[in-house]
């Protein structure tokens, strides 16, 4: 096998940054939350 023909494993692809929308149960403000980010309202802290 030629090394020119060999294609090693590719670098892992970055995951897309998915954001979810969270409505605060206390004040009703819509917050954007990223994966692994704590669920905390940015307006009232609930």
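Q: What amino acid sequence fits the structure above?
A:
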């Amino acid at each position: 096998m030629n090394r020119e023909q060999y294609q090693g494993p590719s670098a892992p692809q970055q995951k897309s940054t998915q954001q979810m929308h969270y409505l605060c149960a206390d004040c009703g403000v819509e917050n954007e939350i990223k994966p692994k980010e704590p669920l905390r309202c940015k307006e009232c802290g609930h």
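Q: And what stands out in the fold?
A: The chain is about 0% helix and 15% strand.
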